[in-house]
Amino acid sequence: MIERAEPLPTFSASSASDELLPIREVVRLTGVNPVTLRAWERRYGLIQPVRTEGGHRLYSLEDVTTIRDILSWTERGVAVSKVGTLLARNRPAARPDTVAGPTPVAKEVPATSEWLEWQAGLRQALADFDEARLEQLYGQVFSLYPISQVFAEVLLPLWQELMHQTGFGQQSQWLFYDAFLRGRVLQRLQFVRRNAEDCILLGALPGQCRELELLVTGLLLGGDSGAVRVLPLGQPLDELTLLCQSIQPRALVLFAPAPPAASLLLQLNKLALAIDCPLALAGAGAELVAEQLQGSPVANLGSEPRLMLSRLTQFVAGHLDT
Fold first, then answer.
1. Contact in structure between 284 and 89 (CB atoms under 8 Å)
2. Is 22 exposed, middle or buried (0-12, 13-18, 19+ CB in 10 A)?
3. Lowest-pLDDT choice from 8-22, 58-72, 278-292
4. Of the four listed, 15, 53, 95, 153, which is most buried by Cβ atoms within 10 Å?
5. Cα separation of 299 and 278, whole Å?
6. So which residues are the signal peptide here (predicted)?
7. Quick one: which of 118, 127, 120, 121 has its CA closest to 172?
């Protein structure tokens, strides 16, 4: 465990998590206009602001996070009508042991305020462009929580938040943060792959994700074995047969954060028949085309990290039906 060189700064995260914002502030934070926010609420039920006695909408910080998630999906071409399914799948389900029993689970599952506190510390380091402090916080959070939780609850939500900020200096903060995370994830990937004898090839469907998302997926799919080799963004699909022939991976996995079009699914089916290793899709896009993948030569690994890793293990062993 990494020792803390100095204590975490104190933030009023718990009070911040209860803060309610007027619609004009939400527009400033997200860039989404009021008409769109109301449509997402009334037509699709994606956000549920509370109302004042005068009928004015007030939004929680959780609502702001949801709005940013909606933006991320729609920017990738996901229809707003399908975003609700993605949001529901990405929200943690209620745990059975939270309903009854004498043993509290607060120590196992940190409260939202705790994640907000870590994000506040990272946000301050980014505002100061303080790489040493950023490195310190990065090491501390990984010493305390599982890797999948750190990315899902702390690092990537802040990364997505900053990506959509438009204020002066915020684009520079995002670029600084993005470069920092990509460098650290690459280091982890190289370290865990050091002793791997064979590998899983991981690529991305064309134009669907940013490099950091692909690298993090590779890290999560690698598990303890680390046997994942991440291909660069822009890898042509029609040349994957050449790579598979030369590298001879145990499997080829393509990351799909958004649902592939019918023409692309047809291309993937042809690719699966042309290579000598099994082919699978991973990510939210794979979940959204699960019905189309049934009975095809392309497997669906899902999008939840533990599920992806479990299905990948079964898939490579030949125990996962496609």
1. yes
2. middle
3. 8-22
4. 153
5. 8
6. none
7. 127
Q: What Rg do the C-alpha atoms of the chain give, in angstroms?
A: 21
Task: Please tell me the predicted confidence (pLDDT) of residue 182.
Answer: 96
Contact status, residue 191 vs residue 224, Cβ threshold 8 Å: no
Cβ neighbours for 164, distance < 8 A, ≥ 6 positions apart: 30, 31, 68, 71
Question: Tell me: the pLDDT tens digits for 175-234?
Answer: 999 999 999 999 888 876 665 567 889 999 987 789 999 999 998 888 766 688 999 999
Which pLDDT does position 109 carry in this prediction? 55
Q: How far is 218 from 212, CA to CA, in rounded Å?
A: 10
With a pLDDT cut of 90, the percent of the chain lying above it is 35
Q: Which two tokens stand for residue 232?
A: 């660069």
Could you tell me the sign of the dihedral formed by the alpha carbons of 6, 137, 93, 227, in that order?
negative
- Quick: pLDDT tens for 65-119: 888 888 877 777 677 887 887 777 665 444 333 333 333 343 455 667 788 899 9
Using an 8 Å Cβ cutoff, are 221 and 189 in contact? no
d(CA 12, CA 131): 24
What is the average per-residue pLDDT within 54-60? Answer: 89
What the chain holds in terms of domains, given with CATH numbers, is 196-317 (3.40.50.2300)
Say if residues 245 and 217 touch (Cβ distance below 8 Å).
Answer: no
Residues in the chain: 322
What's the token pair of residue 141?
Answer: 């959070």
Rounded Cα distance, 17 and 13, in Å: 6
- Runs of H (alpha helix) within the chain: 13-17, 23-30, 34-42, 61-75, 80-90, 112-127, 131-144, 147-149, 156-163, 170-192, 211-222, 240-247, 262-274, 284-288, 290-293, 305-317
Closest-CA residue to 131 (of 168, 185, 170, 180): 180
- Please give the Cα distance from 181 to 156 (Å, whole number): 9
322 and 299 in contact (C-beta within 8 Å)? Answer: yes
For residue 293, count CB atoms less than 10 angstroms from its CB and return exposed for 0-12, middle for 13-18, buried for 19 or more.
buried
List of residues 6+ apart from 73 with CB closer than 8 A: 82, 83, 86, 258, 284
Q: Structure pTM?
A: 0.73
